[in-house]
Amino acid sequence: MTVQVKDITVRFGGVTAVKDVSLKLPPGKIVAVIGPNGSGKSTLFNAITGMVKPAAGTIEVDDTRIDAMPPYRRIGLGLARTFQTPRFDPKVTVSEAVMCGFYPVHRTGVFSAMLRLPKAVAEEGDFRERCSDILDDLRLSEFRSLTMNELPMGRVRLVEVARAVANRPKYILLDEPAAGLEREEQRMLSREIRKLADRGVGVLLVEHNFGLIRELAEHVVVLKDGAKLLEGEPETIAKDRAFIDVYLGSAGR
Amino acid sequence: MPAVLRSRLAPIGLLVVIIAAMTPLIAGSAFWLDNSVLVAIFSLLALSVGMAYGQAGILSMAPAAFGAIGAFATSIVTTRYGLSPLVGLALALLLPAVVAYPMARAITRLSPLPLSIATLLLSLVLELAIREGKGLTGGYIGISGIPPLWFADSVFAMHVLSWGLVVVVLFLYANLTDSAVGRAVKTARHDPLRATADGVNVPALLASYFAISASVSGLAGWLYAHHLTYMGPDSLTMHVSIKVVLMAVIGGASTLLGPVLGAAFLTLLTLYLPAAETQGMIFGGVLIFVLLVAPNGVLGTDWGKLIARRSDKQPMAVRPAATEGTA
Amino acid sequence: MYELVEYLLRGALLGITYGLLAFPVSLLFSTTGSVDVALGAYAVLAVAVAYSIGGPVGILAAILATVFASFVVGIISLRLNRPGAVDHVTAVLGTFGLAMFLESLILSVFGTNPMIRQPFDTFWNIGGIRISPQTGINAAVCLVILTALFVVLRKTPFGRSMRASAANPVGASLNGIPVRQIWFATYLLGGLLAGVAGVLILYTTGADYSSAFTLTIWGFGSAIIFGMNSPLRGFAGGLIIGMVQALCSGYLPGAWATAIPLVVIFVVLSMGRMNQIVSTGGRV
Ligand SMILES: Nc1ncnc2c1ncn2[C@@H]1O[C@H](COP(=O)(O)OP(=O)(O)OP(=O)(O)O)[C@@H](O)[C@H]1O
Ligand SMILES: [Mg+2]
Questions:
Q1: Where does the record place the ABC transporter domain (chain A) (predicted)?
Q2: Residue C281 pLDDT more than 60?
């Protein structure tokens, strides 16, 4: 009952973006991935969700091999992700954007949706309710009818998180969700991530802010040039010489 | 009251009111009733473009071809086999979808652009097949004597029936747009990868949506055949397709009523246009003009914003947001 | 056997003009990511203008006319697209409108008659197969254009900018490459090439007002058969399409001869050659 990544390698032409990386994401745990720019963190996410094809390695979700599955089926199995550069339709409102996140859990077919059968009405109502709950949790309610291009970038990232949370995933992959957030918003986001984990969701988190990682993560994986440099608890990592050299440069000592 | 106006069904209510108000005015004139039926038929074709192009971003250059499939299907079963037009209706709804789905599935992986080319191919092949399929389609002569619908055997009844069908299609379309599927289609149009991350099987979804839109064209073809009682190789050609695409674009392809508005406008305009040869020039020219001026169409353009932007064209205009930021 | 060879040879010679039409398709697609379905209409316009004026003046006028027509498409594309915010589908719609406009213009001005000129009445005899010297001219023109294109794309700053804006429009425009102007120029170049193709078609097989979309399809099919990213492949694709057509008209009855090549192009489309380019690239 975990996401298990074994020896994943991803190549883009001659560049090896990820090299033999393994990691484990158990439900209810927060695992952080950290590393300098271009170290392959986002590519690792893309490989897990099926948006790039790994050259080698296997990925399992709850003992099901998923590395041959198309992305939408992986999402259907209970994965969810956000993008580092949020992808959104600028003309769509915040609540509509979050509503899009319910797609994997929708059950009404095309025909009952067209005819608005009671089943479809009930489901739509249920989604609206859950949508406003999620927006409440992330303090986005007051922006619900703004369009996405009217939001500052930090909030757009929060909407991304809301959209990923919407389908009640078992595992969620967040790519730098806290970038560009104000301190208060960061604190609120970290509370939400904690809540998610307490509900039993496995969270894989890419984050540059080590303070946040220390606060949230039980386990940290450090990538460098696509390979795993080391892993362990945040406290041990923080003291590690190699980590300090790579990540903070000599100034960090 | 405002809640009713904001509902997704409000535009449909508006249309019903307009049609109801128009009906007594034109009820006495066979000419206007006939044109009203044509407007309704073209509205259906244009709505099919609105669904495919306005919602899913699939530019179909073949709405008339799908219409022709529906029209010939019903013409053939009613004239050659003496079957009920209702059998024709079932075929007219089904066959276009059966052609459209595998076609879209085979071609739409991530970009709908190749599918546009494929619809062009379909139009060419179909026009060829209609001319050559003498035993079935009547070749160059076409099929005449298609029976009128027994449940709508006057022009007035056709007027009511065809607008009734437009309203039904609009209702289904509005519901679909405001559902998980409708939202996913819109996302996929804007950004297929985003939709994939939402868990959408983008090619399958777009293909289904395209198939549904083809069915709507087929429905229009069914009405067309039974209204005009004649179908020939020159009835629903690529020229009709461009006209229909133009209708949807002029009115606003992504809006609910835009295609209907465009259909009404262009059908009325056609009444006053000169010979058929020059019509392509007019339609093509107007299409280019509309794309240059208001690519989102009459109902899809925020005219207030557009005019405001035109009137303060100074590049360094002080915007309130900017001053707030620096203050 | 002898018959087969004859068909293949004739097809390949016919395919030269398709190869010429394939250049603008692949050029445009790899540079702007868009498709100009009016290409066939440009070619027919060139046919009509060169036919009615005649002589070298007619040829010049024909090419000017097509460049002007593609100018219109260039404007539409400028209006609709900018790096980072492209709407290719709408731009294609514009070219569809232009194609209809041109078709109807040609119909109203020049009528429905097929337009063809065959200046040669002596034929070459190659192993018993009679071939017009015109095909030699076609091949020579095509070769010259192919070479010129190669030089322009590989060796000039314009070609480099063109490839840069194809690979990454946003990045290129940030680096000061005038991406929109380059797109515009590509449309014009497409019009020019289609004009040349049209002139050759006038002297080879001829065309009438209704050939526009079929010509677009042949050019398009030629361009995708071996992948869109090089004019040379487009040329080879043209030869193949020409041969398929010649074989079909040799061995199949009437309408099938026209329909089967279209179906072949459909199959090629469904093999996803076009998507390969669209789906790669772009970090997420
Ligand atoms: N689609 C792609 N095509 C080619 N190369 C790519 C692609 N995506 C990523 N790369 C390369 O792979 C390497 C890893 O990139 P990746 O985006 O995974 O890094 P990252 O750790 O997420 O960096 P950042 O902190 O900047 O987000 C980089 O060298 C990048 O240039
Ligand atoms: Mg990254």
A1: 3-250
A2: no
